[in-house]
Every structure is written in structure tokens, then in C-alpha cells.
């Protein structure tokens, strides 16, 4: 096998046992359960502090706690394409091109109230006065204001350290927002086709992936009065669409999923990026990616989820999670409460167009699947 190609074979995952013999479940990857509410395809997920938020084409955002429905709220229009949690605020990106803001009520943690829309009505009104704030949108062939997305929001990302929210859209741009004031700080014409993914890293770098087949790296620069993002490198330029991106916690490895079912990865040494090869585990398009610890998760239109473990300089396929009856559209991950230093565990949520969310327990110490192999270099 070429050192640049890493593959895995399907390995069915067992349901976690519920008896007292917990030790048998250590170092395993298993299904905890499923959340099903027959109201729409699942398009977005977000998890934090034991709460899971699910967005669907029913326009509802459901909140789950301990595998049970805890709360929920509904937008007026536009299916929910992305969800980001920031403190007591929840930002949702929609098919209608709007980013909506919701706030948890301090006296009632299960109550969520609308807290505005990005951009605000006042900012739209103020921007509409100046002709220089308009541009011609190619899709509608009419003038639009730069602070507004004129096509569907595809994804959201958050730089919590600086309070910056990033929204990417099919209108080929990504926009930068001040999360506390809802002010649009910058709009970047990033690609020649729809922007399918945007990820803000801890080191002030932003990554974008597009249907035009490119992955671009943007460096954030602060000035006394504003902020700007400068293109510093194009990591990938291919014929098939880039459909998903994720970056590990330290910002040293970036992963890119494509419509051909392949995941490319790059490793960073100082300021230089080195292509680390490809992860081949899917038969159809990769639709979503997530990373946690030394693990990478890829969800696909083939209805499966691949679990990869980074072991310098290779990635090994630990398992392929099966059970969804529709394409896996979104993933979210958070640390398991039972996690220890000797056994790092994660709770993985997978949302599908089969209208369900599956919940998995994943141990970083899980044994390598018997049929799997991986010989690729990863810097």
C-alpha cells in the first residue's frame, strides 16, 4: 500500500452494555443510544456542558440533556444549517442567509428567547444610506449590502478568545462578527464558488473550504480601528468540491473532506504546512468532520462514520460506525465525564438525514480494528 493512502474496512460497532460490568466497556467504541424526533432531517449539532443542540429542516432547534428532550425553540424561517454556543448565547445559521441569536434566561435554564439577528435592523438601515456599502450580487443580479449574506449560511465558527463569530455562505464570502455587539466587522470574498466550511483556529488563523475545490488559509490582523483577514496560502486546489474542514485543538493539523470521499490532512511545523497524505474510508462524499484529542471523525453520504487515531506519523482507522439509514450530515463531540488521563474518552454525536441523532462512546485507547490498516505518513 502506498504510504500516501490510508484505508479502513467496515467494522460493526456493538451497543454499550448497561450492566454493572463497566470494565468490559473500557477502551471501546460503542453506541450509547439514539435520539429520534420525527420532525425533519438533522442538519446541525452543537454540544457543550452536557447539553446537545440539534437543528433540522423543520426550523426547530431542540435541546437534549441526559438523552432526553430538555427544551427547544423555533426560528421563523430557514432550515437550521449551523449552531454555535458562546456562553449564554446560541448562534444559529439558516438557509435564508440570516444568523439568529438566542439567549438562555438566567432564571430558567430551559428557556431560550430570541436575542436578535445578524446583522441587526439598525446596522442594515445605517449601511443602506451609503451607496459605497452596496455591491452587485451575481445570483440575484441586484444590489446588496455587504454586511448581509445574500445566500444560505453553510457553517459557523467561533474564536472564543477574541469574541469573534465567523459565518460562511454559499454567496462565496465569509463574514466576521463581534459576538457581544452583533456588529459586522469584515466581509471577505473568499472563493469562486460556495464556501462550505470555515474554521477559526486558536492561533489567529482561519481556514475556508469551498465548492471550487480549494482550501485557503487566512491570517487575522488587528488594526487600531478594525480587523482584516489576509490570504496567506492555498493548501489545496482540486476538481472536486471541498465539503468539510476541521483543525485539531493546537492548530497543528488541518483535515479537509471532499465530495470524492477522501480526507486530506496537513501538518504544521513552525510556519510551514506539509501534506500528510489522505485518509480513505468512505465510498461517497465526506459531509462533516470533527477532531478531539488524538482522534478525527469523518461522516459521509455513505451513511457511515470513520474513527481515526493520529499516531505520529500515521493515522489508523479504529472503527467504522454504522447504523444510520441516511447520509451523516453533522457531527459534534465533547469530553466524556468518565474520561481519565489513562483513558481519554469522548461522546460523539452524529446527525443524519434519517431524522435521528446517534450517541457514541469513543475511547482513544480503543484497539485497532482487526481488518483495518493504515500506513500513511502524517507530519
UniProtKB/TrEMBL annotation:
InterPro entries according to UniProt: JINGUBANG-like, WD40/YVTN_repeat-like_dom_sf, WD40_PAC1, WD40_repeat_dom_sf, WD40_rpt
WD repeats: 146-187, 188-219, 321-370
Sorted UniProt keywords: Repeat, WD repeat
PANTHER family referenced in this protein's UniProt entry, alphabetically: F-BOX AND WD40 DOMAIN PROTEIN, MYOSIN HEAVY CHAIN KINASE B-LIKE
Protein name from the UniProt record: Uncharacterized protein
Organism ancestry: Eukaryota, Viridiplantae, Streptophyta, Embryophyta, Tracheophyta
Amino acid at each position: 500500500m502506498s504510504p500516501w493512502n490510508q484505508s479502513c474496512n467496515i467494522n460493526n460497532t456493538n451497543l454499550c452494555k448497561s450492566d454493572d460490568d463497566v470494565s468490559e466497556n473500557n477502551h471501546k467504541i460503542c453506541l450509547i443510544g439514539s435520539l429520534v424526533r420525527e420532525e425533519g432531517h438533522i442538519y446541525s449539532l452543537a454540544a457543550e456542558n452536557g447539553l446537545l443542540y440539534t437543528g433540522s429542516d423543520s426550523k426547530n432547534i431542540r435541546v437534549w440533556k441526559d438523552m432526553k428532550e430538555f427544551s427547544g425553540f423555533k426560528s421563523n424561517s430557514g432550515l437550521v444549517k449551523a449552531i454555535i454556543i458562546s456562553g449564554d448565547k446560541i448562534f444559529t445559521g439558516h438557509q435564508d442567509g440570516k444568523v439568529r441569536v438566542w439567549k438562555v434566561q438566567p432564571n430558567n435554564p430551559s428557556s431560550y428567547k430570541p436575542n436578535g439577528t445578524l446583522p441587526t435592523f439598525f446596522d442594515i438601515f445605517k449601511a443602506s444610506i451609503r451607496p459605497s456599502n452596496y455591491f452587485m450580487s451575481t445570483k440575484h443580479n441586484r444590489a446588496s449590502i455587504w454586511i448581509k449574506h445574500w445566500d444560505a449560511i453553510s457553517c459557523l465558527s467561533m474564536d472564543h478568545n477574541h469574541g469573534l463569530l465567523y459565518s460562511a455562505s454559499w454567496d462565496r464570502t465569509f463574514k466576521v462578527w463581534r459576538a457581544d455587539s452583533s456588529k459586522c466587522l469584515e466581509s471577505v470574498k473568499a472563493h469562486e464558488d460556495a464556501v462550505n466550511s470555515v474554521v477559526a483556529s486558536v492561533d489567529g488563523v482561519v481556514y475556508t473550504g469551498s465548492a471550487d475545490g480549494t482550501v485557503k488559509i487566512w491570517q487575522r490582523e488587528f488594526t487600531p480601528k478594525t480587523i482584516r483577514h489576509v490570504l496567506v496560502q492555498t493548501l489545496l486546489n482540486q476538481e472536486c468540491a471541498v465539503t468539510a474542514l476541521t483543525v485539531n485543538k493546537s492548530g497543528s493539523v488541518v483535515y479537509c473532506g471532499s465530495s470524492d470521499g477522501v480526507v486530506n490532512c496537513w501538518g504544521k511545523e513552525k510556519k510551514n504546512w506539509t501534506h500528510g497524505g489522505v485518509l480513505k474510508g468512505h465510498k461517497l462524499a465526506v459531509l462533516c468532520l470533527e477532531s478531539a484529542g488524538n482522534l478525527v471523525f469523518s461522516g459521509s453520504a455513505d451513511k457511515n462514520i470513520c474513527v481515526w487515531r493520529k499516531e505520529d506519523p500515521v493515522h489508523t482507522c479504529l472503527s467504522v460506525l454504522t447504523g444510520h439509514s441516511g447520509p451523516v450530515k453533522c457531527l459534534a463531540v465533547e469530553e466524556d465525564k468518565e474520561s481519565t488521563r489513562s483513558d481519554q474518552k469522548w461522546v460523539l454525536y452524529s446527525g443524519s438525514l434519517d431524522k435521528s441523532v446517534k450517541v457514541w462512546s469513543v475511547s482513544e485507547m480503543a484497539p485497532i480494528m482487526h481488518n483495518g490498516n493504515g500506513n500513511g505518513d502524517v507530519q
